[in-house]
Write a structure and sequence with these properties.
The complex is a heterodimer of chains A (132) and B (521).
Chain A lengths: L4 E5 L3 H14 L2 E5 L2 H11 L3 E5 L7 H9 L9 E5 L4 H9 L4 E4 L4 H18 L5
Helix pairs in contact in A: 2-3
Chain B lengths: L3 H18 L1 H21 L9 H28 L6 H26 L4 H8 L2 H15 L4 H31 L1 H6 L3 H19 L8 H5 L2 H8 L3 H19 L1 H65 L8 H31 L8 E3 L1 H18 L3 E6 L6 E3 L1 H18 L4 E9 L2 E8 L28 H11 L3 E7 L3 E9 L15
Parallel strand pairs in B: 2-4
Antiparallel strand pairs in B: 1-3, 4-5, 5-7, 6-7
Helix pairs in contact in B: 1-2, 2-3, 2-12, 3-4, 4-7, 6-7, 7-9, 9-12, 13-14, 14-17, 15-16, 16-17
The chains are: A alpha/beta (132), B alpha+beta (521).
């Protein structure tokens, strides 16, 4: 049984593939969206347990996507981990403001990403009786 | 009887009577006219004029002032009915004034004629004046009344030729710059001056007091008076007024030259100013472009770096299968370099941000020892891992320093990590002490040291002296931060023995009444 469903919104295939590989090895279901619009669509349709969102996206910017996801009423919005190349103080605050649960700066440690995912989803797991 | 004639006669008659009885007033006007001419010439700034006239006008001024003096002496003689100055002085004054005039006329020719070596050499000879003066004295001594004859001869030999030379010379000079002078509308003044000098030459140089000299027996003041019914001095005075007026008109060329110069300078200055403003704008634009470019590039570089790192991490952690020892070794190296590249991008971006002036420093008062302690705590395990001693020697009771806490931690981290990297055995000591109005921190190591010739380059950006794997920016960033604190950072080293890195921070000021801040030498 999958430990959870993760939606990865990342346009770079070379980054998306290893991340999906690693998370699948950990036992999670991972689906990929290659753009902000696709990401929103999939988020609405599949209702993932966790969303990993890259801020540098073509078309709709990552910050917008994040905000829109927060506005989801039904079902409740999933927690969001943000991947960003920017790490100044301003950007950290922006991440908080737009409602991210946490963020990682690129290039990130794969182990750290996996640790954060575990922290969020395993915590969630104790709240829900049945996986979605 | 027609009105005109009797009126004219009456007028002329009254002028004649008046002038004969008020010769002193005539002399006064005469003298004033020439003196004023002398003064106006002297006060007109002519420095740096491209007209060669500027250099010779002082002679005309000399004539004006000295001859004016001569007329005042004449005037005085009439008022007091006696000479105020000894006859000799009066005579010499007259002679000197005419020498000025002659020299002025001579110089006018020199500056107006094209430089023809043969003729102008003769004209340039300074012996003219001397010979003329001698001639006058010689001839005067042959007569019975030395000074009277002297003055007559001075008029014949120096005054008359001088005035004629000046008259013609002025026209020649006018011709050298004809177009320009016409534009400035001073042509009339040149002609007027020329005419007046010619008339003056005749009236002052030929009409002389009656004396022992043959010609003066025929053409003299008395003969003139009986012929014209007006004293010759009246006409001379009129000439003097004419000369003064026209000379004033002529020297306006210098005024206009200055005005033109000023206008051109102000135009030049304005153009330079505009060009300068343009340059400043362009530099600002370039800086903005540079900042933008570096930010963009840094962010773009991070994307492929992320891809590389993510893929390598998967393999290194064994998620794609068991790794052989060899595979792990080589992949580790790749991974290290990915990290190094990542740090480089961070440093470049950090340095760029620091130097772009956009970073905000938050200054506060902090205890340096506390900051050292915080940095030390993080570094201690690293030093232990390398088996080197790490100790702190902090002076007690130091006053608080003015600093941006996080940035100074950054500096300390940087310096201590450098020390640890370059020390194989021995130890690292971080110490603090008070030096004048500053707190000084020293990071000392027993590491590989730095060559004397490399020390000055240490804090330059992108200089890698010891750590070939580093970015070369660490120390440059430290220097930037310390400079913003109004402090100083420097290094001492002995190659092979070790190094000492110092930096100072100003003590947080709590000015007592009357106490002034020191400057660090």
């Amino acid at each position: 049984m999958a430990k959870g469903h993760i939606l990865l919104i990342e346009d770079e295939a070379d980054i998306a593939k290893p991340v999906r590989y690693a998370l699948q090895e950990e036992g999670y279901d991972v689906s990929i969206a290659l753009s902000g619009e696709e990401g929103l669509e999939k988020a609405r349709k599949h209702n993932p347990d966790l969303i990993i969102l890259d801020l540098m996206l073509p078309g709709l910017p990552g910050e917008e996507v994040c905000r829109e996801i927060q506005e989801f009423e039904e079902p409740a919005a999933a927690p969001i981990i943000i991947l960003t190349a920017k790490d100044t103080d301003v950007d950290k605050v922006i991440c908080k403001v737009i409602g991210a649960a946490c963020y990682l700066t690129k290039p990130f440690e794969m182990e750290e990403l996996i640790a954060q995912v575990r922290a969020m989803l395993d915590r969630d797991k104790t709240d829900t009786l049945y996986p979605s | 009887m027609p009105h005109g004639a009797p009126m004219g006669h009456i007028l002329l008659n009254s002028i004649q009577v008046w002038s004969r009885n008020n010769l002193d007033v005539v002399y006064f006007i005469y003298g004033i006219a020439f003196s004023i001419m002398g003064f106006t010439i002297l006060i007109q700034p002519k420095k740096g004029s491209r007209y060669r006239l500027g250099g010779v006008l002082w002679l005309l001024a000399g004539f004006g002032l000295v001859h004016g003096l001569n007329e005042f002496l004449d005037m005085w003689a009439i008022i007091k009915n006696d000479e105020i100055a000894p006859t000799a002085v009066h005579g010499i004054v007259l002679i000197i004034s005419y020498l000025f005039l002659f020299e002025f006329g001579r110089k006018l020719f020199i500056i107006s004629l094209p430089d023809n070596p043969v003729t102008t050499r003769r004209a340039r000879s300074p012996w003219w004046l001397f010979s003329l003066a001698c001639a006058v004295f010689l001839l005067a001594s042959m007569a019975s009344d030395f000074w009277l004859s002297g003055r007559i001869w001075a008029r014949y030999l120096i005054g008359f030729p001088g005035a004629v030379l000046t008259s013609i010379g002025l026209l020649f000079f006018y011709r050298t710059n004809e177009i320009e002078f016409d534009l400035l509308r001073v042509k009339r003044y040149f002609y007027m001056a020329s005419a007046c000098f010619l008339a003056y030459g005749a009236l002052g140089g030929l009409v002389v007091p009656r004396g022992d000299v043959l010609l003066s027996q025929i053409i003299n003041n008395d003969a003139f008076l009986s012929a014209v019914h007006l004293p010759v001095q009246v006409f001379r005075a009129l000439c003097a007024l004419g000369i003064a007026r026209s000379v004033y008109g002529i020297i306006r060329i210098f005024h206009w030259e200055n005005v033109e110069k000023l206008r051109r300078t102000s135009d030049d200055l304005r153009m330079e100013f505009e060009a300068g403003k343009e340059k400043v704008l362009e530099i600002k634009r370039l800086l903005a472009t540079k900042t933008q470019f570096i930010s963009m590039v840094s962010h773009e570089l991070r994307t492929p770096l992320t891809a590389i790192k993510a893929n390598i991490d998967i393999v290194l952690k064994g998620r794609a299968g068991e790794l052989s020892a060899g595979q792990k070794t080589f992949l580790d190296v790749a991974g290290d370099n990915v990290n190094r590249l990542s740090r480089l991008i961070n440093d470049v971006l950090g340095f760029q941000t620091l130097t772009s002036g956009k970073v905000k420093y938050e200054f506060g008062e902090f205890d340096v020892n506390e900051v050292i302690g915080a940095a030390g705590n993080i570094m201690l395990p690293l030093a232990r891992a390398k088996n080197i001693v790490f100790q702190l020697k902090r002076e007690e009771g130091l006053p608080k320093a003015r600093m941006d806490h996080d940035k100074i931690i950054q500096v300390l981290d940087n310096l201590i990590i450098n020390a640890i990297r370059h020390t194989k055995k021995g130890g690292i000591t971080v110490s603090s002490k008070r030096t004048g109005a500053f707190i000084e921190v020293v990071i000392e190591d027993t590491g590989s040291g730095i060559r004397a010739e490399d020390v000055p380059k240490l804090f330059e950006p992108f200089t890698q002296i010891r750590n070939k794997k580093g970015t070369g920016l660490g120390l440059a960033i430290c220097r930037e931060i310390i400079n913003e604190h109004d402090g100083r950072i420097w290094a001492e080293s002995e190659f092979g023995k070790g190094s000492r890195f110092h930096f100072v921070l100003p003590v947080a000021e709590r000015r007592e009444h009357g106490e002034r801040a020191h400057t660090f030498n």
